[in-house]
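Reposting from the mailing list since nobody answered there.

I have sequence plus structure tokens for a pair of proteins and want to know whether others read the tokens the same way I do. The first protein:
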Amino acid sequence: MHIENMLIYLGGVLMKKYMSFNACCLVIFISAGNVFAQSGFTGQQGFSGQPEFGFTGPSQTGTFVQSFSVITASEARNLPHDSWVVLTGNIVNMLPGGRQYTFRDATGDIAVDIGPKEWRGLSVDMSDKVDIYGEIKFHRGLFHIKVHAISGTGRVNRFPGQPVTVTAPITINEAVNLPHDSWVVLRGNIVSSLFSGHTRPVGPGRGHVNNNYLFRDASGEILVDIGPKEWRGLSIGVSDNVEIYGEIKNNRGQIHVKVHAIRTGA
């Protein structure tokens, strides 16, 4: 009987330890499960809804500014990144790098970035008055204007295939006969958004947006490429008259306009 009691006692102790061990394992397993459940992507899955860019305009308000009238260098300094501006003044020197210049008007100096393509055959010196069309850029606290087009009183060098700068509105029929990379202003209506396999991401979790649209005036139609940034807060419909500012692109005979700025009420 004594031995029997001893065996029962030892069996009870072992059972308690086994149950305690299982309970600990269960706690560890549940805790680990909670940790794994909280790791990785826990937000919204996929893309919901349609991006508010493109033909109906982007949803941002107050992010960008567009100025199609001439402003001063001093006023330009106070505008947000990527704002569209037009300035009149003089280019007074070249800065290190080969494409950075000092632009000056009565209110001060600012750095401007003008690539070889953007000159489009124009040569100017310090005494020549120029108009520059471009975007405000802030990079690591430094301010400059990325120039997309420049016109002025300097000398224009012409040779076959030389891109030209046209700053007054022309028709689509006239635009399609200009060389690749020519700067144009067109006036008309955006009548539809076109599907293309080449879409660009709007942002994390926001899907993709198509940048291709059909632009029409009295002389015909042309494909235009308007990225999310270039809308700068505009929202337009098919009945809205607009002016687009951009470059003629000729890709193996397929002509379109890469739009850098757009305005309504034209």
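The second protein, same order (residues first, tokens after):
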Amino acid sequence: MTPTPDRVALVLGEVAAERARQDARWGPSNLVYRADQPPNRRLAQLTGTLGEVARALLEAGDGDPLAVLVEEVGEVAEALADRDLTHARAEAVQVAAVAAALAEGIDRHQQPAGEVPAP
């Protein structure tokens, strides 16, 4: 199903508001990796493994939305562990898109047709 512009705008507006709350709480740009700063190796390995499990489920035909999200997060972890920040950023954008689609889907199934939930 193609996302409606209203639902996309609503979810992305909520994401922008959440980012503003995060910056207010922790300061801007605290979630930054540099090429010389590796992620927590054990956490990256565990997350990468969860991503592989999710990928296997998806390849076996289990299209569960959580599996899609976890698979993408696993790819971010693998890219960070490899210190490939360009790839990590691209994967992070994919995580954001999947998470937004998940929120849109939840809204779509909780609201009567044609209604966009209030923020």
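Reply #1 (J.P.):
I read it the same way you do. Residues 38-110 form one domain.
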